[in-house]
Amino acid sequence: MLEVLNLNFMQNALMAGILVSIICGLIGSLIVINRMTFIAGGIAHGAYGGIGIAFFFSLEPLLGAGAFSLLLALIIATITLNDKARIDSVIGAIWAFGMAIGIIFIDLTPGYSSDLMSYLFGSILAVSDTDIYFMSVICVVFTAVIVLFYRQFVAVSFDSEFASLRGVNTKLFYYILVCMTALCVVATIRVVGLILVIALLTIPPYIAQGLASRLGSMMLISALFSAVFCVVGLFLSFWLNLTSGASIILVASVCFFVFSIFFRRFRG
Fold first, then answer.
1. Where are the domains of the chain?
2. Angle at the Cα of 207 (from 17 to 176), degrees rounded to 5?
3. How far is CA 105 from the centre of its chain?
4. CB 16 within 8 A of CB 135
């Protein structure tokens, strides 16, 4: 059974799952605390536009997704800071715009034959060494940023007005968080895909939130849960010949419902 670990693609898949778990544990916790799930969803689906543009110009798909996601993140951050009353409509429009742009450019791509299912639903077993390097850089940078500015993120997340009065540049940290969310989405595409990325960003933090009393411990617990979901889902997909991204999210969803039922009874 453990012989599969000797396979190079399985080693890459496990490494990708662990790296993405750390990234999602950090950023997902901030997304849940700041109630930015819809913003993350808009960026995730809008990133499809970058993939379509990259295919049209024969570029690396994740490079196109990254650049396009950062552009969408800056637009969303600017609009939501200035007009929070229309945040749902704006994000919904950007969501649809990104998907439409992606579909149109893919339709215009001459001789297009690549399988887009891996970008929509993930293909962790096809993770390359380049993907691992990219995830590693994102993981190290995000960890460093959160460690260095942990107090500022805590202040902005729980009481932005008080943080602003204490001299914290809340707008800057909001932009940083939204941009980090965009890069987190891109790093997670190869594991669970654009369609399912929001689940991996929110389910582990939601469970961790019920078990942790501090943001730091919530991030750690969320990363651990995410790693367990990725590893279990990965082996499940390998043994049963299932889609890896869907298997990971299925495991996470089952744990989510079980936790919700038992946690509510325990609190009751």
1. 2-267
2. 65
3. 24
4. yes
Into which CATH architecture does domain 2-267 fall? Orthogonal Bundle (1.10)
Cα–Cα distance for residue pair 72/91, rounded to 1 Å: 10
At 203, which amino acid appears?
I
Which residue has 């590693």 as its token pair?
136
The owner of tokens 């396009």 is 68
Q: How many CB atoms lie within 10 A of CB 91?
A: 22
Residues contacting residue 116 through CB under 8 Å, at least 6 positions apart: 51, 106
From residue 165, how far is each of 89, 110, 162, 207 by CA, in Å? 30, 55, 5, 32
Q: What is the pLDDT along the chain (268 residues), one digit of tens a residue?
A: 566 667 787 888 899 999 999 999 999 999 999 988 888 888 988 899 999 999 889 888 888 999 999 999 999 888 888 776 667 788 888 889 999 999 899 888 887 655 677 777 777 878 888 889 999 999 999 999 999 999 999 998 888 888 888 888 999 999 999 999 999 999 998 888 887 899 999 999 999 998 888 999 999 999 999 999 999 999 898 888 888 888 999 999 999 999 988 876 665 5
The angle at the Cα of 66, spanning 64 to 67, to the nearest 5 degrees, equals 70
User: How far is residue 112's CA from residue 53's CA, in Å, rounded to a whole number?
Assistant: 12
- pTM beyond 0.85: the answer is yes
**Residue for token pair 């995410």:** 226
CA angle (167, 172, 175) in 5-degree steps: 150
